[in-house]
Known about the structure:
The protein is an all-alpha fold. Among the domains are: about 1-85, Tetratricopeptide repeat domain (Serine Threonine Protein Phosphatase 5, Tetratricopeptide repeat), CATH 1.25.40.10; about 205-303, Serine Threonine Protein Phosphatase 5, Tetratricopeptide repeat, CATH 1.25.40.10. The chain is about 75% helix and about 0% strand. It contains 17 helices and no strands. It has helices at about 15-35, 40-50, 55-70, 70-85, 90-100, 105-120, 125-135, 140-155, 160-170, 175-185, 190-205, 210-220, 225-240, 240-255, 260-270, 275-290, 295-300. The longest helix is centred in the N-terminal third of the chain and has 18 residues, at about 15-35. It is elongated. It starts with 16 loop residues before the first helix and ends with a helix.
Amino acid sequence: MKRTLILLIAFTSFGLSAQRTAEDYFNRGISKSDLKNYYGAIRDFTKAIKLRPNVSIAYFNRGISKENLQDYYGAIADYTKAIEIFPDYSEVYFNRGYLKYVLLDYEGAIADYTKVIELEPNYEDAYYNRGNSKSNLKDYYGAIVDYTKVIELNPNYEEAYYSRGYSKYVLKYYYGAIADFTKVIELDPTYVRAYYNRAISKAILKDYEGSIADDTKALEFDPNYFIAYYNRGLSKHKLKDYYGAIADYTKAIELSPYYISAYVNRGISKENLVDIKGACRDWKKAEKLGSKRTANWVRDQCN
Length: 303
């Protein structure tokens, strides 16, 4: 999720002494914010607002300080007030949209990002964030449209390719997903999740060797990525490399000792090697961890 925080330092000049004091409080608030003294910044912005309650920029910057203190509702209130005073302030909509997203108000986030786009039709991060909000509402087709727009504006925006690939994956457009994950890897050859998700897509298409290659690449960059060991184990099992599958499931279990599916599938691979005792040990462990699937197997094969 992309977001923007901008401290605006321009403040209207005032002729009266009280108004100059408002400017002084505002500028001091900016300085405190730069020093990450957000509580102090909020106090100064509040004093500036009391002296000049109709200056949008003071509410905006106080909102940023509140956001940095994780007072998201307070920040939204300040961003909303800034918008009431100056309705065409795209960055305020953007920041408010981000906080709505964080607070799981995806529809509200979409509305704010849409307003940003109305004001700035080439704002790529607004399209990207709106796409993420749509994705969280399971509007994957709408998300793809937004991610595609991001890519039109910036062909090197790797996260847009990745997110579009994921949306295609969810919609079972596996070849399209693979194409997008491949583009991500071209832009960033160390992007672990792209290798992993491309591996899953390939496995679904029964390209098990290609899937194994991608999982192996992901593990080169992140040797502790236990789910990649698990996924590679599944592909090896499909190719009847049961010893290789067992080795990968074992590694996944070493990294994640409560990984039920790894025990279940390691047991299945052992069963294929006629190691019934070993299979039963794994299935019993899975059952203890809460697997209902293995209960019947234990009863029927492990007595």
